[in-house]
Amino acid sequence: MSPSPVIALFPEASFGAALNCVGIARALQARGAEPVFLCHPGFTGVFAEYGFREYHLQTGPETGQGRWQDFVNTHLPHFDLSPEAQLETYVAPTWEAIVDTVIAVEDSLEALIAQIRPEAILLDNVIMFPAILRSGRPWVRVVSCAETEIPDPCVPPYLSGLSPADSAGRARWERLCAPLLRPAHNRYNAFRKARGLKPLPAGQFLENSDCLNLLLAPSAVRYKREAPLPEERFVFLEGCVREEGRFEPPVLPRNAGPLVYLSFGSLGAVDTAQIKRMLEVFDTMPARFFVNVGGYLDAYRRVPDNVFLGSWFPQPSVVARADLFIHHGGNNSFCEALFHGVPSLVMPYCWDGHDNARRTADTGVGTHLHRSDWTPDELRQTILDLLEDDAMRARLAAISARMQAEPGVERAAAAVLERLDADRH
């Protein structure tokens, strides 16, 4: 392998995957590699801010960032529904939109890979882009969504929010899911065929890599599988938490009590009405609240004096100082809470948030509430109970120590470079 192998990282168009890949890229860079990013429209500058070179995919207006924002706004009411109900209202339309994106960027992606000529490609996504396989370059699958993304009879169905023992729920989910996803899956397989690739089995949009697969699921919340994944190709990480600049909490007019951090990610920040409801509850509590509202800061006129709103936070550094993390169940947020030994209150919106909400409760590292179906007293009491649960905090301290002893970003980078070196020889 060359002294500075170029490794292209291609995360999906979400900040969770993007920033997860930033952590891996930093560790690769520290080991002498040259990480570069393949960048979806709307994420221009995100990776350059961390000092990495970006290559920008070209796409039409029908699949750009504005279209995705409109898509989320349209589906906001559906986030109140159960995972089962979301299959028809949100999950199936989302797969259609994802397939649209794959088709739209194919030519641009193929041209960029030919231009960059990377030693390897790290794909952190839920779907395969044919240009990656067609390039002939070694590629690594990064599973930064829930572990349920890779199926197994003992693992609940992806996106279902079910527990492993719920066999009746599993049967019902599988019966409902197959026909709803079939149109998007058939269209995707037709595109694969047109690009000279084999079709994937029903319901699957991404194959495992023959080279290396990285899964972010920490051991504390990992499922026991009926068919264990081969260790030579599947590396489980203890999360994948990046370092950020030190966070000094600003002094608030009412500055007493534990620190609670709230972030529903870029998707949940759209839901300003829900966050305003929560601020009213926070106003009644003996705690400090730091709330990530994304690009919607101007939507908030009245802010309690024990609350600080921000359009962006160095999240891992904030979580490290927090006593409770309220989030949407995104896998990065879930892992960051575990890494720093902080209880989670998961209020899921969609996708694998439901899986992580269930896993949070099943493993005793927090609890979950419905996104909007709660009373002020219920939210207040849930927060207080989590802040006062010393037994949970002790369990989380042990989990944190285990995760920090083997940082996921370091193990990921080492596994990638070792596999490339072994394949070369």
TrEMBL record:
Q: Which domain of life is it from?
A: Bacteria
Signal peptide positions on this chain: none
Q: Which CDD domains match?
A: GT1_Gtf-like
Q: Name one Pfam family in it.
A: EryCIII-like_C
Taking the record's annotation, the residue ranges forming a coiled coil are none
**Domain Erythromycin biosynthesis protein CIII-like C-terminal stretches:** 300-408
Q: What is this protein called?
A: Nucleotide disphospho-sugar-binding domain-containing protein
Which source organism does the UniProt entry give?
Answer: Rhodobacter lacus
